[in-house]
Amino acid sequence: xxxxxxxxxxxxxxxxxxxxxxxxxxxxxxxxxxxxxxxxxxxxxxxxxxxxxxxxxxxxxxxxxxxxxxxxxxxxxxxxxxxxxxxxxxxxxxxxxxxxxxxxxxxxxxxxxxxxxxxxxxxxxxxxxxxxxxxxxxxxxxxxxxxxxxxxxxxxxxxxxxxxxxxxxxxxxxxxxxxxxxxxxxxxxxxxxxxxxxxxxxxxxxxxxxxxxxxxxxxxxxxxxxxxxxxxxxxxxxxxxxxxxxxxxxxxxxxxxxxxxxxxxxxxxxxxxxxxxxxxxxxxxxxxxxxxxxxxxxxx
Length: 300
Fold this sequence. Notes:
The chain is globular. It has a 9-stranded mixed β-sheet with strand order 3-2-4-5-1-6-7-8-9, with helices on both faces. Strand 4, helix 9 (190-203) and strand 5 form a beta-alpha-beta unit. It has 2 domains: 1-34; 39-295, Rossmann fold, CATH 3.40.50.300. It is an alpha/beta fold and 300 residues long. It has helices at 3-17, 20-27, 44-50, 69-84, 97-109, 115-118, 123-138, 151-163, 190-203, 282-289, and strands at 57-62, 88-92, 141-145, 169-173, 207-211, 229-237, 247-255, 264-271, 276-279.
């Protein structure tokens, strides 16, 4: 047998032995159904951990104040809408539309979000930021500031964004219901988490929700009804600021149903000035080379 034929036969055997059908026969368990294709976050290591944001699933991002939760959600929204042309809706109680868009534009353009407000940018930075703003303006992104947090009103607004605007991704930034602070009737704490999980299943789109609640308080993985699913991501700082204080390390851990310990962890690089996350080792290279006009939405 020729070497090429031997390699091909070995690879084929490996693929067959590792197939879901083969494993189902050996273990006596039913073969799993087809895996749902998830939407990419644009951060390679995070997508490797999550397998993307799956249709009909709730993912809750938890962590302490200042960890970068809102920045991460904004980056995912910008990547989906401006980078991939996927309709997305971003719900924010705290920020105004212009602030959210500026944050996203600075992330895409690799421009310091804080410095943009207090000192003049260079001509190159101005050019990149203007191009990023144009990308966002033309993208299928809707931002809903100061929305009514009442569960019924929120559900009505979410349904409108999906059914009328064709949104394929919903991002919910710090809804008070997830921390049990919702003053309206019903839907508090874990109950509101289960409510969001059911809404994601109903609409058939992924929902990424941001909160400061603890992982066990958000009701994403307990008592799921048929067709519902939920996971929790925890985000935290893991060490001191890096190069020139511009980059910090963050750890993301994934929690799934029925497991106390995380099923996986990854470390990401957080560029504090731009509020942008990268896979480890990518951020420093991006700052050295920055991004040309046609590569503003870079893979993380």
